[in-house]
Amino acid sequence: MSQNFETKAIRTQTERSQFFEHSTPMYVTSSFVFEDAEDMRASFAEEKERNLYSRFSNPNTSEFVDKMVALEGAESGYAFATGMAAIYSTFAALLRSGDHIVSCRSVFGSTHSLFTKYFPKWNIETSYFKANETDTIESLIQENTKILYVETPTNPGVDILDLEYLGQLAKKHGLIFIVDNCFATPYLQTPIQYGADVVVHSATKLIDGQGRVLGGVAVGKEELIREIYLFSRNTGPALSPFNAWVLSKSLETLPVRVERHCENALKVAEFLEAHPQVNLVRYPFLASHPQHEIAKQQMRLGGNIVTFEVKGGIAAGRQFLNNIQMCSLSANLGDTRTIVTHPASTTHSKLSEEDRLEVGITDGLVRCSVGLENVNDIINDINQALQI
Ligand SMILES: *Cc1c(COP(=O)(O)O)cnc(C)c1O
């Protein structure tokens, strides 16, 4: 019987043990035992699908992966200790020395560091396109280009990239199309439907959703995930069973949480758009968003990130943060607690002003990860902080 999203998020479950538990228990064990020599031989030869060692698989990590596979519409997956472990391992497993990546310039900071600081050590180069200039992608593709990589919505500019267009482009040029779906979650958007070959996530964000554990996952085509799995079972970035247990429980409430996150975020965005101290608001489900039509086509709702520009540049951005009373000043996002950050003076302060503007970070830009507090309390806090 086919199941809907919410049902899969709850009813995809590890087989019940002899104790008939209702909710999956924690399998905090590093290894598993064998019946006899033949069982052990067949297990190591992968003639049997079973748990051997928790670096390879564990009932809790498998439950989390099975859910993510079901929710993203993928064939297979593997879970990682962090989002960065998922992203690094995916590239490291699929690339060889001499390969080339084409990536959107607006990607998560550590992903950008992989491209600029580490992959060149192995003779892997990356070419970038701007989020709003996807028509330049074809001119960047070379003979040795292997991967097309994007995030959408982007961070912190909240640009939307057209997944259908990118999927077709990747197919036309025989590229592996990889999407970091962290900001949308599979509840809002399923890139595989548009031709993504692998979808990666930082589960630390909306998937946990409560600011507790780190985690990551890669799901996608069977043969690609097999490569990622083999690389990972040897190199050891596995997710811990405890964190997998937490994340699998979190997925049970993903649809209701994300629904409310988006409802609150839209109200915050509408409030900001009408505020005289604010220059510009970026939220995919505001009609003023430059890629609003694409957002509506590929996303169920607009997500929980709202960015806006406070009038008065860097000083005003810093003052806004200092005025905030309830919302948190934190580097995380996708938490129950609303979080505000000022990229120009923090996460992106090492970039030149030109490089910052390239990824849409103006001096007064504030990123708000809208949480699940009562939306009136969130708006009241932002409103009083805007009295600059
Ligand atoms: C946070 C984040 C990551 C990295 O995830 P970690 O779990 O912190 O390693 C990757 N991509 C995006 C879009 C993120 O927001």
Automatic annotation (TrEMBL):
Catalytic reaction list: O-succinyl-L-homoserine + hydrogen sulfide = L-homocysteine + succinate
E.C. number(s) listed in UniProt: 2.5.1.-
Biological or metabolic pathway of the protein: Amino-acid biosynthesis; L-methionine biosynthesis via de novo pathway; L-homocysteine from O-succinyl-L-homoserine: step 1/1
Protein name: O-succinylhomoserine sulfhydrylase
Cofactor: pyridoxal 5'-phosphate
Record organism: Pseudotenacibaculum haliotis
Family the UniProt entry places it in: Belongs to the trans-sulfuration enzymes family. MetZ subfamily.
Gene (name only): metZ
Function: Catalyzes the formation of L-homocysteine from O-succinyl-L-homoserine (OSHS) and hydrogen sulfide.
